[in-house]
Amino acid sequence: MSAMIDVTVQSAAWEKLPRAEAAVRRAIEATLRNEQKHDGEIGIVLTDDAHIQALNRDFRETDKPTNVLAFPAPKQPGESRPPIGDIVLAYETLAREAAAEKKPIEHHLVHLAVHGMLHLLGFDHMNDADAETMETHERAILVKLGIPDPYAAREDAGAAA
Q1: Domain interval for residue 123
Q2: Is 115 in contact with 131 (CB distance < 8 Å)?
Q3: CATH code at 41?
Q4: Model pTM?
Q5: Amino acid 161: pLDDT
């Protein structure tokens, strides 16, 4: 059995990145392989800042847009292909961050899709140890996808300080 990945494009802004759906699928599949998760359903929503801001406000009590949100599905015993959860990505925030960090937007998209998928699989970054564990998994997945380490610039800046 294999995972089912359903991608929904809710914003015309994503037309600026025509390979977005394929990139997200590749990122999710690589994350599932790396984490040895072979079945389940994942929903991906490619949206805009207004929609993700409403979700962020309603579910996280933070009234501002963000780049990615992950909503793990409740456990459903006995399901042959249990839902894993949903990942929502906002184009405008993603594009602003990629430009500010001087990285290709598709690389940033793949990183955020991997990040969101790891959240669905139970990873978090609420403390330094958990953040380091999650980042280690992200790096391992991204290198397999040919994406440079998204944390290298931060670490280089920290080493220079």
Answers
A1: 3-154
A2: no
A3: 3.40.390.30
A4: 0.91
A5: 43
